[in-house]
Structures are given as C-alpha cells and as structure tokens.
Amino acid sequence: MLKRIVWLVASAAMVLGQSEPCNGHVELCARPYNNVSFACTHNSYSSPPPNALLVLNQENSIEQQLNDGIRAFMLDVVRNKPVATDGTSNIFNTIASWFSRAKNADDPLESVHLCHESCLLIDKGPLVDSLTVIREFMDANPREIITFIIEN
C-alpha cells in the first residue's frame, strides 16, 4: 500500500511539474532553446523616469518589460569612464580618465555601466542594478528563460 501511495505522489508531482508553463506556454518546455522565439528589446535599459535617459528606446523599465513578457534584452555594457574632475574637459583628459578608471576600478561590478556607446552622455548606472531586477524576477519565475545580447 505504501508503495502505491509513493508512486501516486511521485506521478502527481511529475504531471503537475509538466503542466507548469515555460515562458508562458507548456508547449515550450520540451523545445530546444534554438526552436523558440523570444520577444527582445533594443537598448532595454533606455526607459523613462525614475532613471530617465536623454535618448529613450523603451517606454517601460526592465522590470515592466519582464512583466509584459519580454525575455531577451539587448544591453550596451561599457566600463564607466568618468570625465576629468580638474575643471578641464578636453578629449585628452577624458580619454586619460577612461584608462585610469579601467585600470584602477575599486569595484568591478560598480564600474560596468549600461550606456549607449559612451557613458559621457547616456549612463543608466551600474549593470549590476539591472541584473538584480532580472535576478529577482528569475527567482520568482524559475521556469522562465532570459537571454542577454551584450553589446559595447
């Protein structure tokens, strides 16, 4: 009798597990990654306030995009390169500060930012902040697949 109960519980668990959707659809669970299309946003981080950028590509934050079903994110990742702080702002000082920052970053996670081509004009902030939002979503939705397309 105990064997039948264990078998019944195990069978029910397998059936329940198979009925949970993967990226919103049960049918996708058995498909290989390269046979599934994913909605993707370009410059996914480029959204309005509270962290607005001068140039917007998206109307919604990464968190809202995840809630809306977006599962692929194109992210421009750049080493944070602060401008010279000595009052001069010519291109040579700017370039020198890039290399200085790249070699002496106190915290590599904080020094990698979401920027479009350069952090001089458009800087969404540390990459780790956006990855934290995505991690929280993935912790709450473990059957979802998230794709990153990293650009620089």
Structure commentary:
Mean pLDDT is 74; it is low at 1-16 and 98-104. The N and C termini lie far apart (62 Å). By secondary structure, the chain is an alpha/beta fold. 36% of the residues lie in helices and 19% in strands. The relative contact order is 0.16. β3 and β4 form a beta hairpin.
Summarize the structure.
It is built from five helices and five strands. With 152 residues, the protein is an alpha/beta fold.
What's the topology here?
Blueprint: H1 2-19, E1 40-41, H2 62-67, E2 72-79, H3 91-103, H4 108-111, E3 112-116, E4 118-126, H5 127-140, E5 147-151
Parallel strand pairs: 1-2, 2-5
Antiparallel strand pairs: 2-3, 3-4
Helix percent band: 25-40%
Largest sheet: 5 strands, mixed
Q: What is the ordering of alpha helices and beta strands? A: HEHEHHEEHE
Structure annotation, total helices: 5
* Alpha-beta classification: alpha/beta
Number of domains: 2
Uncertain runs are 1-16, 98-104
Number of strands: 5
Beta-strand percent range: 15-25%
How far is the N terminus from the C terminus? 62 Å
- Radius of gyration, whole Å: 22 Å
Shape: elongated
Mean pLDDT: 74
Keywords:
single chain, 152 residues, alpha/beta, 5 helices, 19% strand
